[in-house]
From TrEMBL:
This is Myosin-binding striated muscle assembly central-domain-containing protein. It comes from Sordaria brevicollis. One of its GO terms (cellular component) is cytoplasm. Residues 258-280 are annotated as: Disordered. Its main location: cytoplasm. Coiled coil: none annotated. InterPro entries: ARM-like, ARM-type_fold, UCS_central_dom.
Length: 709
């Protein structure tokens, strides 16, 4: 049976598209878009098809085909841009943004000229509808073509005209809203921000400061019978939404400026009455109350404003000390649509609250001090509210507000940009040791491993993010029991590659930061304490790097590397392969290094090396190598004589292993050790040691050395 052909205009258009060339398809889509009166679904479909044609056009023109933009005239451009009008539905505007972006990319300079002509023509017409469309277009394309839009925005006479324009009586608040949306977008550009500060600050202050209740009362006084319904033109009051938008713009202007010194009233050139200005702190309080009391309707404006205001340290402290606000912000983050500006804004606030100052090298600290001394006013002195103590306290309050489970949930659907902020927050929280266990319990480990694994490593933008995720993971695993963290869908082996990743230096950094290396070694040591499978994986993935770090010129790195080796050689397979098989030159070299480290100046390094030798001297080949090595027996006896009882314990254990070795190797070890004063040293260990287990080992060793067993 033959299928029934589709009917209706959409089906007809689709059928035609299959048979037409690219230019004819483009013209037909524009004809549909120009008709108007269509359902949103039809408009979105046409915009989507047009966007695809424009995206494909870039590749087609590279192959020598004629560009479809040659048939797109000014009327066609007007059609696309008018769909950016704020009075269109969100879904239509969203598709219009994609279509506009694709057109500007495909059309190049010609598209920029048509866009400029559209904007200037609409502004020149100066009608209610023209202003709305022009402002909406400018707000939308600022992120797409910032240089072109800023040029239009800064054209002579445009910004100075906005103040008088916004004070006119319009039939609705939409002109004001569209204008403020444009200014809000313009503040991303430094020159535009300066111009807004110069020409628009007064009426922005007027909008923010206006008391709507006073306006109503004054109007009743003038005309008791006046209709003062919400939105009335005669009332001339600004809606809450408009006030919120103006407050966001003001915050962006104020937040990037340094705090101004109070006026010098003794200076005769200073006016006696200073104009009132709204500070960032005042605006942040307004946004805070908005989010707490009316998050459903005001969350976008309040979050966007606070994302800028929370750059200031005073604002950070106020927000962090407000538990009600923090819980409201966590709730806002939890309910924000995935990949939305609201989600990104809420995450930005948490980043600002929790971010530590970058760690400085000694050289960088010296340079910073010199700069501070050179600055007479002391402006370069660090802000005490941003020191580690204050940041740590803020992190604790953010954690207590319950942000971690929400971060884990939203990370599953986040954009790369939002995921970057999530990782930054967790990295800051992991700085506090007491929070690492709870972070692991609430899913942070799985999140960090997943982020490191899934972020493309060939993208340079992800290099720093992946390293940050790995370092946060390392910190958490240093302070937690791996057996309680891993299992099920997250096996322990999944953590090894991220940790090994930060053993290596950051190629993008001018100077090497050793903290990630140290923390990675500590975390791997903790994992290597669990089982042989984990030790085997660590050796397979990272042994070359670990071996190199054994001789690093930093005692803390060397110690951490030796402690990791100490845990690795608890596996018989790895101990024999790496050290005990002395028929291999590499094994001989490694053993020499380990014995030498047992004589290092640093007590922690000696202890770690002694622990490794305690495991390895169970092998006859290792005992023989130590015995035959110059100063080998002396180094072992040096451990036995150490003032630190832990070190003494390890030395006695190694000695006992050596003298209990069977055959000729054991006989040679006993002879060598006795010739170096082992009996006297063991007697001294017995008399000066308080710990029973060490005394028992020393007594046993004495009996063997004296031939009493």
């Amino acid at each position: 049976m033959a299928s029934v052909p589709a009917t209706g205009p959409q089906a007809h258009a689709t059928a035609i598209h299959k048979d037409l060339g690219r230019e004819d398809q483009t013209l037909l889509l524009f004809a549909h878009l120009m008709e108007g009166g269509k359902e949103d679904e039809e408009t979105v479909e046409s915009l989507g098809k047009l966007t695809k044609l424009l995206n494909d056009d870039v590749e087609a023109t590279k192959k020598g085909e004629k560009s479809i933009t040659t048939v797109i005239d000014s009327d066609c451009v007007d059609t696309i841009l008018c769909y950016l009008d704020m009075r269109q539905s969100d879904v239509v505007r969203g598709h219009a943004v994609l279509c506009t972006s694709a057109y500007l990319k495909a059309a190049g300079d010609d598209g920029s000229k048509k866009l400029s002509a559209f904007f200037l023509d609409r502004v020149q017409r100066g009608t209610y509808d023209d202003y709305i469309v022009a402002f909406c277009v400018a707000a939308t394309i600022f992120p797409i073509v910032p240089d072109l839009t800023s040029e239009l925005f800064l054209s002579e006479g445009f910004l100075p005209s906005l103040g008088p324009l916004m004070r006119r009586k319009w039939k609705s608040r939409k002109v004001e809203t569209a204008c403020l949306e444009m200014l809000n977008a313009a503040c991303m550009h430094s020159h535009c921000r300066e111009a807004v500060q110069k020409y628009c600050i007064d009426w922005l202050e007027e909008i923010v400061d206006q008391d709507t209740e006073q306006v109503i009362e004054s109007m009743h006084t003038i005309d008791p019978d006046i209709n003062v319904q919400e939105g009335s033109v005669s009332m001339r009051r600004h809606s809450i939404h408009v006030q919120n938008l103006a407050a966001v713009v003001l915050t962006k202007l104020r937040a990037v400026q340094p705090d101004q010194a109070p006026p010098n009233l003794s200076d005769p050139s200073q006016p006696r009455v200073q104009p009132a200005t709204t500070s960032v702190e005042d605006l942040s309080k307004k946004f805070t109350q908005m989010l707490i009391k009316d998050s459903e309707h005001s969350s976008q404006a309040s979050v966007e404003g606070l994302a800028y205001a929370s750059i200031r340290s005073k604002v950070k402290e106020e927000l962090a000390n407000n538990p009600e606000f923090l819980k409201s912000l966590v709730k806002t983050l939890e309910t924000a649509p995935p990949r939305s500006p609201l989600m990104y804004g809420a995450l930005s606030i948490f980043v600002n609250l929790t971010q530590y100052r970058p760690a400085l090298t000694e050289e960088q600290k010296r340079i910073s001090q010199l700069k501070a001394y050179a600055d007479a006013a002391g402006k370069l002195q660090p802000d005490p509210l941003n020191d580690n103590e204050h940041v740590s306290a803020r992190c604790k309050r953010v954690f207590e507000a319950g942000v971690t489970p929400v971060l884990v949930t939203i990370s599953k659907t986040s954009s790369v940009a939002s995921l970057t902020l999530v990782i930054s927050i967790l990295n800051s929280l992991s700085m506090t040791p007491s929070m690492r266990g709870p972070l692991a319990q609430q899913g942070a480990v799985r999140l960090l491993i997943g982020a490191w694994t899934n972020l493309p490593e060939d993208d340079p933008k992800n290099m720093t993010v992946r390293r940050t995720a790995a370092q946060a993971l390392a910190r958490i695993l240093i302070s937690t029991n791996p057996m309680l963290v891993f299992g099920g869908s997250t096996p322990m082996s999944t953590a090894i590659r991220p940790l090994v990743h930060i053993l290596l230096p950051d190629q993008s950094a001018e100077t090497r930061d050793l903290l990630p290396t140290f923390e990675s070694l500590m975390a791997l040591t903790n994992l290597a304490a669990v089982d042989d499978d984990t030790r085997r994986t660590i050796v397979r993935v990272a042994w070359k790097d670990i071996e190199e770090l054994l001789l690093y010129n930093n005692p803390r790195i060397t110690t951490a590397a030796v402690e990791l080796v100490c845990n690795i050689v608890q596996s018989p397979e790895e101990a024999e392969s790496l050290f005990a098989d002395t028929s291999k030159p590499q094994a001989q070299t490694r053993l020499k290094i380990l014995v030498a480290l047992a004589d290092a100046e640093d007590a922690a390094t000696r202890s770690a090396a002694g622990g490794a030798l305690a495991a390895l001297t169970g092998y006859e080949t290792v005992v023989k190598a130590i015995t035959e090595r110059e100063r080998g027996p002396e180094i072992i006896l040096g451990l036995c004589e150490d003032d630190n009882e832990d070190l003494r314990h390890r030395g006695v254990f190694v000695l006992l292993n050596m003298i209990t070795c069977e055959g000729q190797t054991g006989k040679l070890a006993r002879e060598k050790l006795m010739s170096k004063g082992a009996v006297e040293i063991m007697r001294e260990v017995v008399t000066r040691t308080k710990r029973r287990e060490i005394v028992e080992l020393a007594v046993q060793a004495l009996k063997l050395l004296l031939g009493k067993e």
